[in-house]
Amino acid sequence: MGAPTVTEVAAGVHFVEGDAVNWVVLTDGDALTLIDAGYPADVDAVRQSLDLIGCRPDQIAAVLITHGHVDHIGSLPALLNGSTPVYLSQPEVRHVHGEYREQATPIDVVRNLHRPGYLGWSLYLARSGALKHVTLPAAAPFPSDGPLNVPGRPIPVPTPGHTSGHTCYLLPDAGVILTGDTLVTGHPTSRIEGPQLLAPIFHHDRQRTVEALDTLEALDADIVLPGHGPVYRGSIREAAAQARERAA
Ligand SMILES: [Zn+2]
Q1: What is the Å distance from ligand 1's center to 11 Cα?
Q2: How confident is the model at residue 81, as a pLDDT?
Q3: What's the DSSP call for residue 60?
Q4: Beta sheet of 86-88, edge-to-edge order
């Protein structure tokens, strides 16, 4: 796996681009919040990203997750010491506890191998640990409504669709929205760049994902940090409109 790229998009908001998936580090003094965590094989890249920011894993005060897919939670079992709180929405807690599963299977990917990008993508998945079923038995629902009392004070924004408990995170002071896999700006299986939805096979409920764009569109933010693809600098209103148009 290659070295991650870290960009401080606003004070204390560090956007990390791994090989195929992104994560975000919010710093506040000595403490930090990690939002999403890459594939199982990204564990060294996550450590490296903290190092580039000047932090250590033991400074992680809390982990937040957009959704329980293996490319967003994969490194956590190896990264965390067990006492770090991991928070998600209530339905997504059940997902990462392994009570149900909403993820494209290897068979779904094989069925799409004739499409551009999918062969290289499937080989990448095998290397990245994507075939592991990662669960987080200690993950818990958000402890409160509104801004979370963790470094960066992100506000969870429920955006069910991609998974039933998918959550975006708003940082109102920084004007930043983390869109997870509700809205992305690129993906190895996509040939376009810019705000878009992931391919249909990746969504548990694509129609609800499109509806979740309405929620994003109503927010006030002008830096968009997606789960996949580069940062989008422009209003989330515009980004959501573009994604909706391309999805139609
Ligand atoms: Zn996903």
Answers
A1: 27
A2: 84
A3: E
A4: 5-10, 13-17, 22-28, 31-35, 60-64, 86-88, 140-141
Domain chopping of the chain, boundaries:
5-247
Compute the distance between CA of residue 135 and CA of residue 76 in angstroms, rounded to an integer: 9
Which residues lie near ion ligand 1 (Cβ < 5 Å)? 69, 181
Tokens 């509806």 belong to 211
CATH number of 5-247: 3.60.15.10
- pLDDT for res 162: 97
**Which residues lie below 8 Å from residue 16, measured CB to CB, with a gap of 6+?**
4, 5, 6, 7, 22, 23, 24, 25, 46, 49
Q: Give 196 Cα–ligand 1 centroid separation in angstroms.
A: 14
Q: What's the pLDDT at 1? A: 65
pLDDT averaged per 10 residues in sequence order, the chain, 248 residues: 91 96 97 97 97 96 97 96 94 93 81 85 82 90 96 98 97 98 94 93 94 98 98 98 95
Residue 32 sits at φ, ψ, to 5 deg, of -145, 155
Ligand 1 mean position to 208 CA, how many Å? 14
| Residue 40 to residue 61: CA distance in whole angstroms | 21
Sequence-distant (6+) residues with CB within 8 A of 53 are 6, 14, 25, 27, 32
Give the single-character DSSP code of 159.
Answer: -
> 29 alpha carbon to ligand 1 midpoint, in Å?
31
Phi, psi of 40 (to 5 degrees): -50, -40
Tell me how far apart the alpha carbons of residues 85 and 72 are, in angstroms, rounded to a whole number.
Answer: 16
